[in-house]
Amino acid sequence: MCGIVGYVGNRDVVEVLFKGLTNLEYRGYDSAGMALRDEGEIKIFKTLGKLINLKNELENRKSELIHPVCGIGHIRWATHGSPSLVNAHPHTCNCGRLVVVHNGIIENYKELREELIKKGCKFKSQTDTETIAHLVADEYAKAKNLEIAVRNSVKKLQGAYAICVMHKDVPDVIVGARKHAPMLVGIGENENFIASDTPAIIEYTKKTIYLDDNEIAVVTKDSVKITDIDGNLVNKKVEVLPWEPVALSKLGYKHFMLKEIHEQPDVIRNVLNGKLFDIDSPIILNEVKIDKDILKKLNKIEIIACGTSLHAAIVGKYLIEDFAGISVEVEASSEYIYRKTTTDASTLVIGVSQSGETADTITAIKQAREKKSHVLIITNRPDSNMARLADSLIPVNAGIEVSVAATKSYTAQLMSFYLLALHLAEIKGSLDKEYIKNLKHELIQLPTKIEEILSNTSVIQECARKFSSYKNFIYISRGVNLASAYEGALKLKEISYINATGYPAGELKHGPIAMLDETMPVLSILIPGGITYEKVLSNSEEAKARNAKLIALTSSNDKSLDNLFDIVIRIPSVSEILSPVLTCVPLQLLAYYIAEFLGKDVDQPRNLAKSVTVE
Ligand code: AGP
After folding, report:
1. Is there a smaller number of Cβ atoms within 10 Å at the N or the C end of the chain?
2. Residue 605 within a domain
3. Ligand 1 centroid distance, CA of 307 (Å)
4. What range defines the domain where residue 586 resides?
5. pTM of the full predicted structure?
């Protein structure tokens, strides 16, 4: 969603801000802007659409810039008011001396706006953010101190915000504040940064201070002062970012999504590293900070997540129930928060999130914490807000994921669930020891099997070419691969804008079969050796009888499938219970190639954001 970067120092400010915004681009946005303090003036540049437009605007107006030393930049994903130039950030007060950029949503902006209009403020945009600009200016007129003005203003704000403010009369100072939206300060030598996320600053510094809710940062070239909402100084820990700038490079791949798909074998090795040593040793999962005796008696787990993470959670439910015999409920965070749940202190609540910033999941986790549940977070961002709410934290270590469509973070989440479910099974003694050994042996083989899939994608590309003109798809499966059907369909939807639905194969005949004809491809996920293969095959036959085009994704070598299906995508042999780690890969690639053939913006699909920080 929106992104913020601010800089004070001796580097080329425009370049630092532009680079920072470019590194946040993956989050999704529809307009961009910068405010630069230059020779005592505040100069604003804004454009609609991609950052290239802002670059051109800066280039066209470069004669207006003399020597900027301080600035704030923003990419906006519209919430209040359409994507337009007037709604783009930064926003200003009446006189234009104060500028603000903002991530989040101010819930009481209408009331504040009314009050400010009565005081003579003239609003130009439809945004909630402009209210903050007028409000801080109003407070500044009284306090004559920007830090105090920001503090007094944020006390009046309800909702979520990360803001950066500059004032013409307060040279080379950026004041930042946050509540329910991430914000961090990057520490440099004779320079400092402020941003909504680490990619914005990683090229310049790895030293970071994460602001907590209700904290205010006053950032100059050589000082960073952090205070709480009452103005008390807060002593913050300087943390060192764990990853390198190279993570933000495509490394020769056409898109980040393709690069990230190809990173999956190594990501899996990473997840297993230090946790699964060999098939004879127990899984080491020290991250789970619950007493083993409590784990043994645990009889209810709830998993909450959104989107792709929700699909990983569905696989997680299957595994935990199958391996450890513990009852698991899975729910979309956005629904969980509106239900009177039976969550209590004896429930283990697991939150799953790539970004660790998804607003719905954060709200759900907070709700669970209020009920005194132990909260386990599985996330790719151990530096995130969600991670800070965790009693136990499993970082999935997939590395930064830039493409909006989650791929490698999904496989990493799946692997974390395999480890967790086996860990619980080992504690409870609920699985046969030989069976566990076989599973561990197969888990270790998975990266090599994915490498095999990635080494020959010709059938997947042929399938993409053949089916890219179809307007609707149904993906079907049963059992542990139902989540793979959901996830494959979601991938196709989000990056190619083709209507695709994941459906339990057995449910086809209870309604969706009515839609089937030669215009509707049905993609069936069939893994032999388990309990679902024959049934999914029969359901595929039923679809064929209605003239549907058929695609199989299977590990079967049965040649007769080539007669039934129009295309058969084969993956290496794998046991059904572990197969979701393999089946997701061709489905990611199929979505990728279809989107590529259709010329879509693969890494930044329209209307989507990488972290969805609004409910
Ligand atoms: C995945 O491809 C999507 N971009 C989206 O569904 C995503 O999984 C969802 O928004 C949840 O995000 P999170 O994992 O960061 O919480």
Report:
1. C
2. no
3. 5
4. 458-597
5. 0.82
